[in-house]
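We include the entry.

. . .
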Amino acid sequence: MTSLKQQTDAQIEKTRQAKPEFMQSVDDLLAKAEEFQEGGNATAVGEKAPGFELPNAQGETVSLASLLERGPVVVTFYRGSWCPYCNLQLRAMQQRLPEIQNLGAELVAVSPQMPDESLSQTERDELEFVVLSDQDARVAEQYGVAWKVPDVLLDHMTKDRGLELTKINNGNGDVLPIPATFVLSNDGVVVWRFVDVDYRTRAEPDDIIAALQQLSVAAPK
């Protein structure tokens, strides 16, 4: 099976071939964001994860507390359905969802898109985990993973991709979550995390499952 990293690397190379100058500017920009890239502001392992109540794709409110009542929770932040790297990640997570659920865990994906914009009908049919709308990336900010997107990236999204993020998100169009995944024990404590300002890099499902397996081993019999 092709790893998620191999898939995102292929997407990077595809974009690099098509837009070499843009990709070089992204490389240079991200290289300067060292502290943020290392997750200096993000909720740390051992800390209690911030609670939240957010609407799902059907407009129904889902709380972290209600998810934790059923067991561990994997919270992953993504930029939106318009992001090819996010779509690779979501599909990779869907493929491994049975393993996550067999370990007693829930998977929830959070983006700033409006509930009616967060997923197409086809995506709703394909994804079997919870997808939530975090308008203005307020919950992402509480987790320390909200990022003011630099102008070079905003220009690329607007001019090259034709994206109107203010409309898509029905609010702030220049603040997005960086790729971040948190594994929470059923008491809401972060036991593992992946945080990287480089939106082209994502947590490997294997690593997420390994963290859940460790939780399972540590749980009292």
Q: What stands out?
A: Residues 4-18 form the longest helix (15 residues). DSSP finds eleven helices and nine strands in the chain.
